[in-house]
Every structure is written in C-alpha cells, then in structure tokens.
Amino acid sequence: MNLLNVENGKWVQVVNFRGGSGMHRRLSQLGFLPGNRVRIVRAAPFRGPLLLEVEGREIVLGRGIASHILVENI
Amino acid sequence: MRFALIGQPNCGKSTLFNQVAGYKAETGNFSGTTVNFKETKVRVLGDVVELVDLPGTYSLLGTNPAERVVLDYLISKKIDVVINVIDATHLVQGLLFTLELMEMGRPMVLAINMMDDATRQGLKIDGEKLSQLLGIPVLPMIASRGQGVRATFIQAWHAAKETKIPQSQKYGEEIESAIKDLKGRLKHDGFPISRRAIAVKLLEGDPEITNKVINKNPGIADFIHGHLDTLCHRSSRQAVWMVATERQKIARELAKNVSLQGETHLSFRDKLDDYLLHPFFGYLFLLLVLGGFFALVYGIGNWLEVPMLAFFGDLTNLVMTRMKIEGLLPQLIAGIIQGVSGGIAIVLPYLLPFLLGLGFLEDIGYLTRIAFLTDALMHRMGLHGKAIVPFILGYGCTVPAIMSTRIMEDKRDRILSAALVTMIPCAARLSVIFGLVSFYLGPWAALGIYIFNILIIAITGKMITRFLPEDSPGLILEMPVYRMPTLRTVTSKAWFRIREFIFEAWPLLIVGSVILAGLNYFSITPYLDKIFQPITWALGLPSAVGTPLLFGIFRKELSLIMLAQALGTTNFGAVLTAEQMMVYTIFVVFYIPCVATMVTIKNELGAKNMWLITGLSLFIATAAALFSRYVILIFS
User: Fold this and answer.
1) Least buried of B83, B236, B405, B588, by fewest C-beta within 10 Å?
2) What is the pLDDT of residues B99-111, one digit of tens each?
3) Which residue in chain A is spatially nearest to B61 when comparing CA positions?
4) What residues are paired with B147 via a beta bridge?
C-alpha cells in the first residue's frame, strides 16, 4: 500500500519508492528510507498536501509524491 | 584561509554568519532563505579569514540548484576548514550530514547549535564523547545569542592550521569494497575533495560528478555501472538508498551513545498546529493574520505620512516664495525636496512596518504553515505550495524572490513562479498603492487592488499552465518548529532591507526628481511621454504620466515620486480622478519589472525568459488596467 492509504496518526514503515533516482535522492535526504517509521500528522483540506512525521522531523509532501511511497504496517 | 559554514536548512548558519559579519545574510525560519553563497572577511587569532556561508542542504546530493551550489563549491574551491552547523534537536539527521561531510577529506569542526532548544526539550548531548567518537572538535552553540561562536572559530583556526583530516566512518562490506575498487581506478583528478568522497558520489549516482569523472577516466564508466547493478540487484534498492541507510545506522548509533533522550517530542507544536492548520480555523486565522498585517501597515503608514507630507508641502511653498526668482534653480531645488520627501514621507512610513511584520512572520515559522494551507490553491495556478516562499518574499522585494525560486527542483516551476512573482506588488509598489490609492481613496480601495492583483496572478498562472503543462512532483518542504523571534534579528533583518532602500533607491529617487525637473524646464518630457502615449491614451490617463512610467522601470517608487513633478503638484487628488488613480496604480503594479529584477531573471533563467516575462507583464498590465477602467466606468 502507499502512504495515501494510511489513516491519520497511524505509524507505518517505509518499504520502497516508485519513481526515478532523482526523487529517491530527494526523499532519502529527508529521512524516507526503508525501515524508517512515518505517520501522517494531518492532511490539508481540498486534497492538499500531507504533514508527515518522520525521523523526528515534520515534512510536508504533496499527494502526488506521497502516493509513490510504499509502506507496510508495523 | 577559507572557512566554510555548511549545514542543513534552518540550522542557524546564517544567524551565525550574521553574528560574525554583521547583518549581511538574510535569515528566516524556513528552509531555503539562503540560496547562494555569501562571503565575508573576518579576523581570527590575527589571521584574515574568508568566511563563506553556503546554502542549507540536507545532504550533498544536490537535488535542487540551491543545494547544487554547496557541492559545486566543495569540488571546485579549496576550503581550509569546514564548520558544520547542526541543530541539536535533530541530532541524528544532522549527524547524517556530518558523516557525509567528513568523507570530503577536509579539516572540520562540528558546532551543535540551538542548545537552548535542546535543553528546553530535556535533551542532553555529551559533546566531548561525540568529539572522541568522530575524531573532530565538537562545540555547543547558541548562535542567536552569540554563545559558543568565538570558541568555534578558534577551534576551526587550529583545525585549519594543523590540517587535521577527519577519519571517515566505515560502511558495510559490500559498499566498502565497491568504494575501494572505484577509488583505485580514479587517477589523480584534481578535485579538492578526497577520492573516497568521489567514489561515494559515484555510487550515489551524482550525475555531474559522474560525467566529470568519466570525462577524465573514460574506462571507468563500465565499472561504475557494474557496481551500481550489483548493489541494486542484491538489495532490490537503489544504491543511493543503501548508502543513506548505512549512514543512518551509524548516525543513530552515535546519537544513542552521546545523547540522553533519544526521541524529541512534538506535543506543543502539534497542539498549536491543531488550531493553526485546522481545516476551518486555520484558514480563518490565516485571513486574520493577513488582514491584521494589512491594517498594521496602513495604520502606521498613514499616521506618519499625513503630517510629513504637510510639512514638506509647506517647505516647498516657503522655498519657492522666498527665492522669488524664476528659472531653473528653484525648479531643481523643488525637485530635490520632492525626492527627499518621497522617500521619507511616502515610502518609509509603509516600508518600515511592512518589513518588521514580514520579518516577524518569517522568523516565527508561519510562512511554511501558509504554504501547507495554500498548496491546494496554488495547484489551481499550476504551481505547488513551495512557490509560496518566493510569492511571500515578493511582497518585500522581487529580486530575492526570483532568486529563491532556486529551491524548486523543476525548471518549469521556476519559470512559472518567476513570471508570476514579478506581478506581486513589492515594497516599492506598495508605496504607490498606499501613497496614492489608500491615501486619497481609502484603505478599502488599496485592499481591493491587492485582491484584484491576486486574482489576475491566478488567472495568468492558469493560462500559462495551458502552455507549460504540469509535470512537477509537488510540494516537498520541512515544517519548522515555532520559534519566538528575538527583537534583534527582526529589527536587523528589517534594517538590512531599509538600508538598501536608503542608500541605493533613495538617492536614485532624488536624482530622478531633479532630472525630471530639468527635463520639465527644457520641455523635453512631452517627447518621453510619447513612448507610453498609446497606453496612457487607451487607459484614459493624462499623457504627462508617461515619463514617470518610463522612470518607474528603474525604480518602481519613481512612478509615484516623479508623478508629483510631472503633474506639478503633490496633491494628486486635485489633478487625477479616482478612476485615473486606480487605473494608473494597477498598471504600475503589473507593468515591466524594474531593471534589477530583469537582470536577476536574466541571470537565473536566461535572456529569453527575461524578455518573455517582460513582454507578458506589459501585456497583462495593459489588459488588467483596461479591464479595471471599464469596470469602474460601468459601476460609477
């Protein structure tokens, strides 16, 4: 499943990323690495971005990218 | 000697730089405030040291142009010591970058900044132990209060003198053997960083370094691909993720060993954000903040402008009646007074509260919240929420706003944001809106112009998106914690920009007024007015406003200050109708960006885009002003 399928507040674990190497690099430096825990803190209305907590930081991600991050339950 | 300040976004590098250099670098509580490197000379233990502040970057992967600057600087210039600044409250993430920097093979000191925040969160960090584990000096720091700054520079000086090269941490066996193999195949290549660092960059797939290395060592390409394939095959993941994962393992281990409390708590800001990012109250609060900000600028500005304008009006009359001579001289003196009063009575009263307010919003960390709330809206214009950073900076000055588009990964996004940012009324245009429209027609008319402006920008964005279809990945931004700004950073930030106005723009305003007085005296202005005649005619404006519009291209304030000269009075209410004031101001808000902006666009995005954006702005200005003229005609 991808990040968009996860309910708010629930911790999940990053598995992989579907996409080019440029985005791999970008996400890896923000803490989205396999095995790392992530949760959706809140979602902006009107199909806006997600506010995620990962590695002690809060990161805002658009839904497009979030849908490419594959996660699994812990 | 050259010292380089390197760190992740929002870790306080620029605050540190300003502590040492005086206020020269912009600071703000969101990532991407510094997009280019800044240099200054400082004296450390008797040596003159060149200190460079590099843009904040999460890693040396160079994923956007601002981050690229850091890697380019490291591989092209010789740095005697790297001062790595990390945020104590994000120790693991900071150390990740520290480990990467240590591979570069340059002497290094680590400054752990924001120790006060860490203490507040109950986080204890054993700097001495960390120093032993890493083998580099580690110093605690609170840059915003200047604590630990001196000690850091002294340690950096020693590290540079002794050229102590830090020992890199070891990765897992698979990666290490790939590094060793590639390292062996690199001939002496002339990069000022270690061969190990280059080998790691090759495994991470850095496109530019890979190209450079292959150019110098043509045989190496097959080996690079071979290693990448093997690593990728074994783990079913990209090599860049493997390297990052291993680095993270080391960083976590280090952090566990040296800090007392592993995880940081987000509870307080979570609670505050429950309201400020709420689907309903969040937007309500946003409107209140923006409305309050507008009221503040209007209130203070108007309160100062009225008595000062009256004073300068009396002064001009006094001088003119006392001198009792005809000719050029009194005209020129009146020109000087007009230029001076334009700066002090019309521009500064609005500029000052505006910059203080913007600086406060920036530093407290609210701007990224605005990006979060408005991302969906920005999408309608074909942009993502990150564009909100240049947009908001654009209300201050268009030049840094255009430069800040570097935080966007995609060229299309950069061009589109730059085109739209030029239409945002900067502080110079703010003085036209407030000095003319709100002064004579009231604050609601001025607010109307701001709202109309946003509508036009949205429509333009929508139209351009048709030609440049969206394929950008969307918003990626770190949400900063709330920080109470210190009075000193907010005021020195405002002073940084006010100083620019006083020393660069104001003299130009005075000279412009004097030149116009001369042009008027020799009856040259009618010829200059002809340039804008087709437009002024279509918009129903007096043709005399052509010259101020022409000079407005140099500095937008001139289109207001010189209006007084051109129309022969500072009492615009007597010579312009309400409709004309609105139409003129709307045209000024949109038409041709000022020269400084045009140069910046050329540097950032090329000459072709500069002319495209300039042409577009002239077209939109005319269309928007015509539209408003007919709307006003219909309703009145």
Assistant:
1) B236
2) 999 998 899 999 9
3) A25
4) B142
